[in-house]
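EI: anyone free to look at a 400-residue chain?
SC: sure, send it
EI:
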Amino acid sequence: MNRNKLAFWNIWSSYAISYFGKINLSIVIPALLASATGMGLYNVGLVASGFFFAYALGQFFHGQLSEKYNPFIYIAIGLIGSGILNLFLGFWGGFFWLLFIGEILDGFFQSMGWSSCVRANAVLQPKENIEKSTVILGTSYQIGNSLAWLVSAVVVGGWGWQAGFFVAAGFLIMRGILLLLTMPQFVVDVSPKISIKIKQTLCAPVILSGLSLCLLNMVRYGMIVWIPLYLYQSQALVVSEMFKLGLKVCLIPLAGVTGTLVYNKIKIKKELLTVIFLILLSVSFIVLLFTPGGSFLNIVLLLIGSFFLYSPHVFLVSTMPSRFLDKNIVAASTGFIDGMGYLGTFLVGLIVPFFLVTLSLSWVHVFVLWAILAVLVAILVAIIYSKYYKKSDFCTGFKK
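SC: here you go
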């Protein structure tokens, strides 16, 4: 295996492991609601939104700042910092305000990872391989999501919600240390001033991609945060049965991996293919409305939706910013787009409890919202393609 491939899999595995500190909360939530006093749906919704709001702000900040530093060291610091905070939450996460503050700080450390991963990959890969490698890089968080969900469900079901934080801490700290020991040499280019980078970053394709991801993350993280609770409630499970839940939800991102690999093989321009996948995602949610919650067909449709969901996300958060390599704003554009995406994640953490508690609506209305959002993202991506795509400067950026 050559050095580029070794570096790629080092990046890939580091980001996959980072998901232990990002989605373990969605498995902890049902156990917290069942066992912790003073915790309600709005409490855990605020905690999730606090994490993702901090993550969004961190993406904007780290996307600009990380251009000046070795991305491997940046990623490692984020992993270790997130691990330390999860260790803290394993002891004191049962208190709302400590959980809220701890998850906000965790979100800031977690946000050190993705923009640096995309930048490191774009710099180390041969130019002709960048687009393909960005799609494969996107499978890191899909497989990491699935693995973290399954392991977290097993330990939470066996030892309680605290174990969901402790196991994440172990994986994150060990992977951060290993990355520092195995990282390749990386020459940091002299970057323009941050003010210049910000001006370069705020071009129309990046802004539209960020808005698209804002809406799409309301679907993707809506599923990540709330589908475990949806299945937990619809199947009337108890905490000791979390393993059954884990076996089901871990299949959702794995279906996304399959969809991403198929997406990577289809010889159609990625913008057009992204629009097609988004429309089919919306259709899958509409059909799902006519199935009983937690039934076999219901879960199959969730898997079909995931099949079409993840590759548009990869396109927006990995492939698109890598096209700005020659402008030296890969991390900056990644941070902006992903930061906008996590503003959407922040919103969905509040919208779902608002639908279910304040308005006394059902999960049906949540799925309708996600179907509408998928169509809106398809429209925005179509605008990007029709107005800004140019073959002549495909890898150097887009004409404003």
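EI: The first helix runs from residue 3 to 18.
SC: 👍
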